[in-house]
Amino acid sequence: MDDVKMVIDKLETMDKRLDSIDITLVKQAKDLEYHIKRTDILQEMVVPMQEHVSLVNTTMKVLMALGGLIGFIATIYVAIK
After folding, report:
1. How far apart are the C-alpha atoms of 72 and 76, rounded to whole Å?
2. What 3-state DSSP class applies to 32?
């Protein structure tokens, strides 16, 4: 009889642990939904920044090319004079 009671006690303990795990899983699922929503919002915010960075990079490359061309022309002008 004691063995049966001990097995039943162990099963009840395991059942309580499973209930605890279920509660944890529900909480984690809610947290995951929140983080997915937050990530989606942040990704939408990054797209305009990427476009801006691309525009600035292109502008800086054009300005550096113009600066190099002006420097080259100035060098030739000074060498000719």
Report:
1. 6
2. helix
DSSP 50: H
Measure the CA–CA gap between 81 and 78, rounded to whole angstroms: 5
Q: Which whole-number Å values give the CA distances from 52 to 28, 64, 65, in the listed order?
A: 36, 18, 20
Cα–Cα separations (whole angstroms), residue 27 to 11, 13, 15, 32, 33: 25, 22, 19, 9, 10
Q: Cα–Cα–Cα angle for 24, 30, 32, nearest 5°? A: 100
Rounded (10°) CA dihedral 34, 40, 42, 48: -160
Q: What Å distances lie between residue 62 and 3, 34, 68, 69, CA to CA? A: 85, 43, 10, 10
- The mean pLDDT of 21-28, rounded to a whole number, is 91
Confidence band of 22 (pLDDT split at 50, 70, 90) = confident
